[in-house]
Amino acid sequence: MLDLLIFLPPNSVYPTIVAGILGLLIGSFLNVVIYRMPKMMQRESDNYVAHESGLELPHTDRFNLIVPRSACPHCGHMISALENIPVISYLFLRGRCRECHASIPLRYPLVELCTGLLSAYLIWNFGSGLAGMSTLLFAWLLIAMTCIDLDTQLLPDDLTYLLLWCGLLVNLKGGFVPLGDAVIGAAAGYLSLWSIYWLFKLSTGKEGMGYGDFKLLAALGAWLGWTMLPAIILLSSIVGAVVGICLIIFAKHGRDNPIPFGPYLAAAGMIALLYRQPISQFLFSFA
Q1: From its phi and psi, is residue 258 left (phi > 0), alpha (psi between -120 and 50) or beta?
Q2: pLDDT value at position 4?
Q3: Residue 5 — very low, low, confident or very high, per pLDDT cuts 50/70/90?
Q4: Which of 20, 193, 213, 241 could disulfide-link to 209, CB 3.0 to 4.6 Å?
Q5: How many helices (H) does the chain have, and how many strands (E)?
Q6: If 0-12 CB within 10 Å is exposed, 13-18 middle and 19+ buried, where does residue 224 land?
């Protein structure tokens, strides 16, 4: 009976609803990851520099994804369980802290809602077997990396490497592509952007992207295989170019101001996952 509940085929209502609810809860946790992981990286860097210089460590308190409890950054009010219900609490509190009435960023419920809807959509399309459950991890990591990159222009190794190794493990028995295609996809994904990076740097003297982008494309190659890399690069470049032009024209974003490339890679990777077969057929017919 448990197997019937867990391993259901695509277009099944029950696992889709469960995935949507689970996605809302995971979205709440992703907000913690998005907020704390860059701070954890900075604290670790500060401690390392201080240690190498023989100075007192600036950060000795525990600060990770679990400790301390979530609190309002303005007044320090500890957020209770009732105030942490995905989306509902935000609506009930009218987007403000219960104590100091400071505004709560709209991105918190948006991340929760996006994670819930995307989780439900993935299970509806892939079912609740190994393939479907693995796509949830794929989506959750991409959402976290997208928001962190938008905030800090960083793609944490803890997330990119996790996505890469999980992709290889999923394809160990040919989950999405044969293992050989996954290994080649990981290597080709990294080396392709690495080559573009150095060509751009040698020709202009500037850095066009960060090493995190190489690792993210390598991870996408590990999940979807080397044959999807051209489509991912093309899709991400088109979306990035359109958004970049719009920012320059409408938001007066300076041309010299860097624009993170990770979110476009993540969006292209998700599109490639959902429409792998049509994209493959199109590329084959085009070739």
Answers
A1: beta
A2: 40
A3: very low
A4: 213
A5: 11, 0
A6: buried
Amino acid at 259: I
* Cα torsion angle, 181, 284, 129, 28, sign: positive
Residues in the chain: 287
Mean pLDDT over the full length of the chain: 88
Cβ atoms < 10 Å from Cβ of 47: 16
Mean pLDDT along residues 225-253: 81
247 vs 71: CA distance, rounded Å: 33
Report yes or no: 228 and 234 within 8 Å, Cβ to Cβ. Answer: no
Closest CA to 34 of 161, 150, 165: 150
Distances (CA, A) of 163 to 125, 133, 209, 216, 217: 21, 14, 20, 8, 10
Q: Is 146 exposed, middle or buried (0-12, 13-18, 19+ CB in 10 A)?
A: buried
C-alpha span between 41 and 64 (Å, rounded): 10
pLDDT for residue 257: 65
Tell me the CA end-to-end span of the chain in Å, nearest whole number: 47
As a whole number of angstroms, the distance between CA 166 and CA 146 comes to 18
Tell me the three-class secondary structure of 218-236, residue by residue. Answer: HHHHHHHCHHHHHHHHHHH
Inform me whether the pLDDT recorded for 256 exceeds 90.
no
Residue type at position 210: G
**Are the beta carbons of 178 and 172 closer than 8 angstroms?**
no
